[in-house]
């Protein structure tokens, strides 16, 4: 499994939104733009429902919102970077979120979904790549940094 | 009424398959009606038979009955075969002496009581000592027979198991033999008395009876050995069926050609088969049991249709009354004394007599033989009396058997897993204590719960208690790829969609079929189709364990003497 199969450079963006709601809406927009098979509204509703159960801000400025949806044909990822940080993300360590990685997988691909989650946390567990991503100027550079050794 | 009857008797002969179809369909419907009245189904078949037969509307006349005879013989063969399958050698090894004592006591009890009463009644009516004695002897011998078919049908219908059931199975099987032997002796003595063929053939008659008994059993046993060999080489059930039915038909046909007792022959086949290879032959009995019901229905409808009691002279009614009273008393007292002398169980002592009233094939057959041998007057009397009393005991006998097995507490103990699956509801087996997770239960808590409990699948509920997903241990194992995930994964992230569920009110069999077909270990149970609130989990292995326990408990109860 390679992250590059599910993440393309055009789904990497510098976020303009300052709040959690705005940021998540932008992230959903990135995935929805990927194909006609993605229903923007239901994806956004699913992401919000998941956040209502428990925040996906796992600390160190990183958030990994993740959902499985019945309608999806394949898995998609999107990455958003916030220069200012999103203070209202309600992350586990209370710090503002700077990197958001959204994972949306089809309902039936549970194993892939978990592997994507694991791979993203693995690639971003050290402070160095996180700092580089936050400092990254353009999306293609951020893309390469996120894929890590896979490149 | 007479005109209508006459018209119906002139009705054109219906195609035989139409008669069979009508008999089976309406017999079954009649049986359902009687079952609703808590009367054994076999009475329903017979009453429908009486209604459409010679005593009723006359749709099934003598000629039609003649055409149906092969089916009748096949039905008797099936009955013999199934009874043979119940005769396990170990039962005889353990209870053989008991059974022989009871058999002789009830058989000879009926013989003596009927003989004495019929003799006395005939003496009063005719004053002819020799004729009265002959009638007493012949009817006495005939009265010792017990028809297995109607009796055993009640035992099967009510799924009985226990010492009374075992005893009845063995007795009705052996009764034919005893009746044939008694008839052999009695008829030869009667023949000498009436001077029908004075002095000649007494030995021959006895030899004839011996030939019928030994020949029949030898034929059946030989066929049993051969069929066992065939079954050993045929693993496939579908291929075994023609062999089993074929052998059965062969034995029935050969028994008729060789003029030996048909029921005894097929009984021999069944008994040899079940004792040679109890496990391997089990499918054979299941196959025959599977095809048997319509054959039984037809058989009993025809039994009813044959009964003809419209034109009986007064003195025949008196003799018939003496016969029924004598037979009932003789069987009751004989069975009780036999059971007491042999030290049989309390339930056998008390209730066995009630199970032995039925009479049919052998009794009617012997009556026909007797009518052949003793000339028109006595012959007609014997045939009419046996027919009329058969009518009575066939209708009254099965409810008595039911009463006996009920009182003995043996009803419903001989159940299979299939029976229990049909009789239970999901609500009876659902595990209401299954741990449940909320959507926001974290992975850490889930793992802890799984470590402490033994379920294979755990439900995930929303805030209203509705089932929204399932987490199985197997699926969860695949989620164990990264430790970091444990901190932020929730039940919501890990759950799988609910593929299928069942309701509390659903039949257990239905739910188990669902699980087996979809290869599921467990099935979530919700309150009802309209109320999706989660009730509990139904686990396949727990259902299996519970059913085995129930079956074992019932068998143990049946085994306690």
Low-confidence stretches of chain B are 1-11
Total number of beta strands of chain A: 6
Distance between the termini of chain B: 55 Å
Could you name the CATH topology of chain A? Mannitol-specific EII, Chain A
CATH architecture of the largest domain in chain B: Up-down Bundle
Q: Overall 3D geometry of chain A?
A: globular
Query: CATH topology of the largest domain in chain B, anyone?
Result: Na+/H+ antiporter like fold
Task: Record keyword descriptors for this entry.
heterodimer, A: 151 residues, alpha/beta, Mannitol-specific EII, Chain A, six-stranded mixed sheet, 5 helices, 39% helix, B: 561 residues, 2 domains, three-stranded mixed sheet, disordered N terminus
Write the topology of this structure.
The complex is a heterodimer of chains A (151) and B (561).
Chain A: E1 12-14, H1 20-32, H2 40-53, E2 57-59, E3 62-63, E4 66-69, E5 76-86, E6 97-106, H3 110-123, H4 127-135, H5 139-147
Parallel strand pairs in A: 1-5, 3-6, 4-6
Antiparallel strand pairs in A: 2-3, 5-6
Chain B: H1 2-9, H2 16-36, H3 41-52, H4 62-86, H5 89-126, H6 129-143, H7 148-157, H8 163-194, H9 202-233, H10 237-257, H11 262-276, H12 282-306, H13 314-341, H14 346-351, H15 361-373, H16 375-407, H17 417-423, H18 426-429, E1 437-438, H19 443-452, E2 457-461, E3 467-472, H20 473-477, H21 491-494, E4 502-503, H22 508-518, E5 522-526, E6 534-539, H23 540-559
Parallel strand pairs in B: 1-2, 4-5
Antiparallel strand pairs in B: 2-3, 5-6
Helix pairs in contact in B: 2-3, 2-12, 3-12, 3-16, 4-8, 4-10, 4-11, 4-12, 5-6, 5-8, 5-13, 6-8, 6-15, 7-8, 7-16, 8-9, 8-15, 9-10, 9-11, 10-11, 10-12, 13-16, 15-16, 17-22
């Amino acid at each position: 499994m390679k992250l590059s199969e599910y993440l393309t450079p055009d789904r990497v963006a510098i976020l303009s939104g300052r709040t959690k709601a705005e940021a998540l809406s932008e992230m959903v927009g990135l995935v929805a733009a990927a194909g006609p098979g993605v229903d923007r509204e239901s994806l956004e509703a699913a992401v919000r429902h998941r956040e209502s159960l428990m925040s996906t801000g796992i600390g160190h400025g990183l958030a990994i919102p993740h959902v499985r949806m019945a309608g999806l044909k394949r898995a998609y990822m999107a990455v958003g970077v916030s220069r200012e940080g999103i203070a209202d993300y309600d992350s586990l360590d209370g710090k503002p979120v700077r990197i958001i990685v959204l994972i949306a997988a089809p309902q039936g691909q549970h194993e892939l979904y978990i592997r994507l989650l694991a791979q993203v946390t693995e690639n971003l567990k050290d402070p160095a790549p996180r700092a580089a991503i936050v400092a990254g100027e353009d999306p293609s550079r951020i893309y390469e940094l996120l894929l890590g050794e896979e490149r | 009424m007479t005109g209508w009857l006459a018209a119906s008797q002139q009705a054109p002969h219906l195609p035989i398959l139409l008669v069979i179809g009508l008999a089976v369909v309406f017999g079954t419907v009649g049986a359902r009606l009687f079952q609703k009245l808590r009367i054994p189904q076999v009475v329903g078949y017979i009453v429908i038979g009486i209604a459409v037969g010679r005593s009723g509307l006359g749709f099934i006349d003598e000629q039609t009955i003649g055409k149906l005879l092969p089916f009748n013989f096949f039905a008797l063969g099936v009955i013999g075969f199934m009874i043979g399958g119940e005769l396990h050698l170990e039962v005889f090894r353990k209870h053989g002496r008991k059974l022989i004592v009871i058999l002789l006591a009830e058989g000879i009890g009926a013989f003596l009581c009927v003989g004495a009463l019929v003799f006395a009644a005939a003496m009063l009516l005719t004053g002819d000592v020799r004729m009265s004695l002959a009638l007493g002897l012949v009817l006495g011998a005939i009265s010792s027979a017990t028809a297995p078919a109607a009796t055993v049908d009640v035992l099967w219908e009510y799924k009985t198991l226990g010492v009374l059931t075992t005893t009845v199975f063995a007795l009705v099987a052996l009764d034919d033999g005893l009746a044939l032997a008694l008839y052999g002796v009695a008829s030869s003595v009667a023949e000498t008395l009436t001077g029908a063929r004075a002095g000649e053939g007494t030995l021959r008659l006895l030899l004839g009876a011996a030939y019928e008994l030994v020949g029949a059993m030898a034929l059946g046993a030989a066929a049993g050995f051969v069929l066992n060999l065939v079954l050993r080489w045929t693993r496939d059930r579908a291929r075994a069926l023609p062999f089993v039915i074929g052998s059965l038909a062969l034995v029935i046909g050969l028994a008729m050609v060789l003029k030996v007792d048909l029921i005894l022959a097929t009984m021999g086949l069944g008994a040899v088969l079940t004792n040679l290879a109890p496990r391997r032959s089990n499918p054979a009995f299941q196959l025959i049991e599977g095809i048997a019901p319509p054959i039984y229905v037809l058989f009993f409808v025809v039994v009813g249709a044959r009964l003809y009691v419209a034109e009986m002279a007064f003195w025949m009614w008196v003799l018939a009354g003496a016969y029924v009273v004598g037979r009932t008393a003789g069987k009751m007292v004989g069975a009780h004394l036999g059971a007491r002398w042999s030290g049989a169980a309390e339930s056998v002592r008390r209730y066995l007599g009630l199970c032995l009233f039925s009479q049919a094939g052998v009794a009617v057959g012997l009556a026909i033989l007797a009518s052949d041998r003793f000339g028109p007057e006595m012959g007609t009397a014997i045939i009419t009396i046996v027919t009329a009393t058969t009518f009575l005991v066939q209708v009254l006998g099965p409810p008595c058997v039911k009463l006996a097995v009920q009182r003995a507490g043996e009803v419903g103990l001989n159940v299979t897993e299939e029976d229990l699956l049909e009789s239970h509801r999901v609500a009876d087996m659902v595990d209401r204590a299954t741990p449940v997770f909320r959507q926001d239960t974290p992975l850490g808590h889930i793992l802890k719960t799984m470590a402490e409990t033994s379920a294979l699948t755990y439900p995930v509920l929303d805030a209203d208690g509705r089932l929204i997903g399932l987490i199985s241990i197997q699926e969860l194992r695949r989620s164990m790829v990264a430790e970091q995930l444990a901190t932020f994964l929730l039940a919501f992230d890990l759950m799988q969609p609910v593929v299928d569920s069942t309701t509390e009110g659903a039949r257990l069999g239905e739910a188990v079929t669902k699980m087996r077909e979809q290869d599921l270990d467990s099935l979530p149970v919700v309150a009802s189709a309209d109320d999706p609130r989660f009730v509990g989990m139904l686990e396949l292995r727990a259902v299996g364990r519970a059913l085995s326990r129930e079956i074992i408990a019932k068998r143990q109860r049946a085994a306690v003497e």
